[in-house]
Amino acid sequence: MSEIHNVVIVGSGPAGYTAAVYAARAQLNPIVYEGSITAGGALMNTTEVENFPGFPEGVMGPDLMDAMRKQAEKFGAKLITDDIVEMKLDGEIKVLTDGSGNTMKAKAVILATGSAYKEIGLTNEKRLSGRGVSWCATCDGFFFREKVVAIVGGGDSAMEEANFLTRFASKVVLIHRRDSLRASKIMADRAMANPKIEFLWNTEVIDVLGADQMTGLKLKNTVDGTESEQDFDGLFVAIGHVPRSELIVGQIDLDAEGYVKVQGRSSKTNLTGVFACGDLVDHTYRQAITAAGTGCEAALDAERFLSGH
Amino acid sequence: MSSAQAVTVANFEAEVLQSTTPVLVDFWAEWCGPCRAVGPIVDEIASEYAGKIKVVKLNTDEEAAIAMKYGIMSIPTLNVFVGGQVVKTIVGAKPKPALLKELSEYL
After folding, report:
1. B84 conformational bin, left if phi > 0, alpha if psi -120 to 50, beta if neither
2. From A130, which residue of chain B is nearest by alpha-carbon distance?
3. Ranges for the Thioredoxin domain (chain B) (predicted)?
4. Best interface-test mutation with B: which of A125, A126, A139 has the largest number of B CBs within 10 A?
């Protein structure tokens, strides 16, 4: 019989690492599956984080995650850079299988798998991915030096990426389906004040054009329905995220959009001993600090559950 | 334990285009988070499949001309070269089992 751990945390990022810090300090010897390529979560692909309290000068996303990781490790969390590929969560002992085929047993599981980039959902978007279409401005902006790029989205991520892209691109056109932005005022004002950024309001991307390489976009005006084509060298998609809950579909109660449902003001899922936190449960806020906050809640809930076990 | 060797404009022809075994080229850069994440996986594939596939890394920041020649616009991109030609392109970081599946015919 293999060892039964107190708690396995699935996913890293601010939620997973904060849960790990708390669980480790509670002497629960947590195991953290960080993810083989997603370790550190969404902040690994951002630049400067200006709104995480305690960093008046701002902090680079990857540096912040590295610090959280070290803090979790310092208190004894065991970090594994692999993915969980299968979970059986309904019994008293939860059984998890990782990408290398190892099985892990635990009394409690904290789900912190975060979210993945949302796609527009166009056939040619996928086909031209890596041929002009990108989801990561910090990765790919460099390849669009002196080019004209479009970015679709209206939130803080879209603003940040648009600003970042102006370091390389000659012009960045921000395409948004409404006539106002969801982004915070400081981020929106910064983008609007940037002379290299133009806004295309009330506009939807309905197709990505190009044979071997993207050459432009087919656009639709959301007010009068008119369609048009415009030349672009690149398209950055920043329309938000979808929760990474595909592994737990059918086991854990999810809402219509795939977010894990938690009970009231807690991290408890419908299954005893299974807790969820971070972007996986959060429709509304989706900030590093709120993810960290719910990660803390999940660890405290797990600790209470285990002490009464 | 070997890991993937770096290639540059100086040895790209010899190491990649003239290679008699298939070559997996990892186009990456220091600033790219997903590249740093997939790097160790690429190294593992290099050592585990040594002899079957040659695995090299190309820094797109330092070797921009080669990246441009192969139309790299997203990193990480993993290209498989056979006989000097690109026969497979994998865009984006993927977990090891997914990569091995995509590369199966060359391993």
Report:
1. left
2. B74
3. 1-107
4. A139
Question: Looking at CA atoms only, how far is residue B50 from chain A in angstroms?
Answer: 20
Residue A248 β-bridge partners: none
Pick the CATH number of A3-114+240-305 from 3.40.50.1820, 3.40.50.150, 3.90.550.10, 3.50.50.60: 3.50.50.60
Chain B residue at shortest CA distance from A61: B33
Q: Tell me which chain A residues have a C-beta less than 8 angstroms from the C-beta of B102.
A: none
Interface residue B45 vs chain A (CB under 8 A): no
Q: Let me know if residue B19 belongs to a domain.
A: yes
Least CB-CB distance to A36: which of B35, B60, B96?
Answer: B96
Distances (CA, A) of B58 to A132, A145, A185, A235, B12: 20, 19, 40, 24, 9
Here the tokens at position B6 are 């770096």
Report the chain B residue with the minimal C-alpha distance to residue A127: B91
Cβ–Cβ below 8 Å for B41 and A37: yes
* CB contact burial A251-262 (16+ within 10 A = b; e otherwise): bbebeeeebbeb
Domain at B40, CATH number: 3.40.30.10
First-last CA distance in chain B? 18
The domains of chain A are located at 3-114+240-305, 118-235
Q: At B12, is the secondary structure helix, strand, or coil?
A: helix
